[in-house]
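Journal club prep — side note

Before the paper discussion, L.F. wants everyone to see what a predicted structure for a comparable chain looks like in token form. Sequence:
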Amino acid sequence: MDHGDSPSSCCGPADRCVFHKAMLARTMACAASARQVHGEQTQVVCTAPASRHNCDLLLGMLRERARFALRLGSPAHPLLHAQALRLQCGGLAALRSVVPDGDDDVQALVALARQRHGSLSDLPWPALVACTAAWAPPRRGR
């Protein structure tokens, strides 16, 4: 699944973390992620293929269901950086609000959501989409 910027593109490794923008923005953490520095660029890769698959499914469903609310356009078009950041950070913040006693670890949060709701498709999507659409990046200081 392609959710904006393809992991196999020239700018990232094939095992890049699905939520790499959220990891780099430090809004969440993940036990299955590792930071790698290539020249002047920091990349976040996933060290657990099963967790990466679950995150990929979650982000794909989130993009599909929040497409209208976030004005993402066609799934065939890549996302702008701000759109991808809002989808990733807002989506994880929304998931954290739906699974209130989950921690800030993405891998554990996704696993707990699957455990509580049976599958990712059974999550309360209207609440997730509303929370994702309401997310805004923190204001920058002067």
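L.F.'s comment for the group: The chain has a mean pLDDT of 87. Keep this in mind when we get to the figures.
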